[in-house]
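Why does residue order matter? Because the sequence determines the fold. Keep that principle in mind as you read this record.
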Amino acid sequence: MASRTVTVTDNATGKSVELPVREGTHGPEVVEIQNLFKEFGYFSYDAGFTSTASCRSDITFIDGDQGILLYRGYPIEQLAEQSTFLEVSYLLLHGELPTSTELDQFNRAITEHTMINESLKDFFDGFHYNAHPMAMLTGVVASLSAFYHDAIRINDPGNRKLTCHRVLAKMPTIAAAAYKHMAGEPFVYPLNRLSYTSNLLNMLFSRPTEPYEINPIHERALDQLLILHADHEQNASTSTVRLASSTGTNPFASIASGCAALWGPAHGGANEAVLNMLQEIGDIDQVPKFIAKAKDKDDPFRLMGFGHRVYKNFDPRANIIRKTCHDVLNDLGISNDPQLEIAMELEQRALEDDYFIERKLYPNVDFYSGIIYRALGIPTDFFTVMFALGRTPGWLAQWNEMVSDPEQRIGRPRQLYTGAARRDYVDIQNR
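Structure:
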């Protein structure tokens, strides 16, 4: 038995069982309930797994009440302000920040794998011109399993490392190809001389007809957004990656399953919802009216991008990206974009309003990320693809951790069956 236990008693029979308590580095302790069914014949019921720890993990910790997000113990504020996306990716994958030599080696390893097989260009031609980019991203990522058969050897640490490099390197190339397919423009090949984020911007926005110059403010803003989205504990898409991976499937299929889960509007579509809300507001003069609607409990209108289901305080990621958002808008100027003007007016009024302050309904990372993407010229339908790019190192780290954990087994959630009771088949003539 563990040093601490919880005793559960069945009031119908008087039988009791002691369940061990496990303690982590931070956060609530957990009660192991594996013996509950063996001792009592009961399953636990927790719709949405909101009170259930499905795994143990060393990667990310969130304290929503205190507004804390840690990657491998490092506060997100420090990483976003001082680090780069590739350095954070190394941290998530390896558990420690790299030395200068290790980071150089990691950069070279990623750079070597940015190209995708030429036949994948034909794969994109199979998509309709207005196919959703997440459909393309999900399908093409899954198709990588047809090119890299060695990735199936998931118990080989060397192969897992190589797979992580391949996926991290190719995701921007695949995403940019999906964008160019949407735009009806020729694909742009990756350039090894550019940084990870510069390369992404170049593949998205450069054209054969004219040179494209990387704006350092835009590059830094995008790099920060990728860092802020890199991992977020056991959310829906990460849990999907883990559950799919528990079957022993190839990692490309697992990452594709994460893309599919992220595609859902309740998960990865939050920043898109912000832009839809701004469009609904329509005019900067309408902001007071819509703030009043948001305060009216009988009005179905809600301010999107304010508050957070996990963070009951200020979203720590929003503190960082707010300044970056204003840097981007100041660089571009917002006088000719009504939606961005509405967003800034909405932010200012909400931050000064006692109603929102008392309820801690502050702008979250989705509010600012949607505005930044809009300002950079990224279409709304593509926002979730950008989210997936950022979340890729987190998915890979979680996959690698799960495959390496001897405690993990194939996922098999239970259920509370509420369907018809057992009954006998009735011949069709007698129904």
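Residues 165 and 186 are 26 Å apart (CA to CA).
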